Amino acid sequence: MIMFNNKKTRHFISGVVVVALIVGVIMTRAIIGGVIDEYHIPFSQWPADLYLTQCFMIVIYTAVFTGLLSIPLWYFFLGESDDKN
């Protein structure tokens, strides 16, 4: 297991993991729900290529939105520090 010595780095990584989980759940519900509503195909009757395509879409969208939402987390946890005392 990777150990992060800096407390700010640990907080940033845990924040990114939480954001990735939230975005993954939202994307999964939106994409799978959208396919079921649009094509009127129950989840149990999906062909294999539809599973594969939707899985890749979920992974790609989750990665993109996690990256975009990690920018404010990076600035908050690892950005400029004001050490003026």
TrEMBL record:
Transmembrane segments: 12-36, 56-78
InterPro entries, per database record: DUF2534
Keyword entries, A-Z: Membrane, Transmembrane, Transmembrane helix
Protein name: Membrane protein
Organismal lineage: Bacteria, Pseudomonadati, Pseudomonadota, Gammaproteobacteria, Enterobacterales
